[in-house]
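Step 1: inspect the first sequence and its tokens.
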Amino acid sequence: MQYLHNPRCSKSRQGLELLAANGVHPDIVLYLKEPLSEAQLTHLVSALGITDVTQMMRTKEPEFTALGLQGASNEKLIRAMAQTPKLIERPILIDGDKAVIGRPPEQLLSLVQVNRS
């Protein structure tokens, strides 16, 4: 599993703590320092099962407006996230061909088998 993480984001930190509390320790991807490629983002869109790429974007960021992304094609949105990773919603947990956005952080648990004995 991989976890797209921004240590400065409280929801991202909460999600990581929640996963650890449930025995899940994914590989951490600091996507702001190691931006995802367009191919990786395209795979992520598929893994999330979304058709509207804005569902995985931070549309309230000033960059979204400055880049004129309102109403843009999915291809343009993916290119924008590859070039400006700040636009990617966080956190995101990826497990092969499945992924989930951790908003709220409890959503992350929908992707993992949690043993509650």
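Step 2: inspect the second sequence and its tokens, then contrast the two.
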Amino acid sequence: MTERKWSLAACRVNAKLTQKEVAGILKMSPATVNAHETGKISPKMEQIKKYAELYDVPAEIIDI
């Protein structure tokens, strides 16, 4: 069975965080968080791992 993928935005909302809060925690600009969520910029693997840790999800389920 294929595991369902979650968007970065869905992971963030599920974690009850705003883009501004995520940006502060991960030490990046809110514009960068927004660009990652909208697909304008692909996050690097290191950033994906940080998102996964923050959202308490496996990195493999994040749909990038």
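Step 3: confirm your contrast with the notes below.
The radius of gyration is 11 Å. The chain has one domain: 8-59.
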